[in-house]
């Protein structure tokens, strides 16, 4: 017959276990939400100029090379 052994778990250990379980999931959802926000806001001139142009890999794609004489405003 199996014996059941109950041990006490300190509150600190319990909170660390819960934190470890949720950190990965919340991190993945946070990265996904941030990427979606940048995707939807990439057409906004402020986001394009202040955020996306300053990322080294994305700079060439989002940089505006249109001469000033060809812009309507």
TrEMBL record:
Transmembrane segments annotated in the record for this chain: 26-47
InterPro entries cross-referenced by the UniProt entry: Cytochrome_b-c1_su10_fun
Ribonucleoprotein keyword on record: no
Pfam families: QCR10 (PF09796)
UniProt keyword annotations, A-Z: Membrane, Transmembrane, Transmembrane helix
Family annotation (PANTHER family): CYTOCHROME B-C1 COMPLEX SUBUNIT 10, CYTOCHROME B-C1 COMPLEX SUBUNIT 10, MITOCHONDRIAL
Protein name per Swiss-Prot or TrEMBL: Ubiquinol-cytochrome-c reductase complex subunit-domain-containing protein
Record organism: Mycena metata
């Amino acid at each position: 017959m199996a014996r059941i052994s109950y041990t006490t778990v300190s509150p600190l250990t319990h909170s660390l276990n819960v934190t470890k379980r949720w950190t990965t999931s919340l991190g993945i959802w946070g990265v996904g939400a941030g990427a979606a926000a940048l995707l939807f806001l990439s057409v906004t001139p402020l986001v394009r100029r202040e955020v996306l142009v300053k990322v080294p890999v994305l700079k060439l794609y989002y940089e505006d090379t249109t001469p000033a004489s060809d812009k309507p405003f």
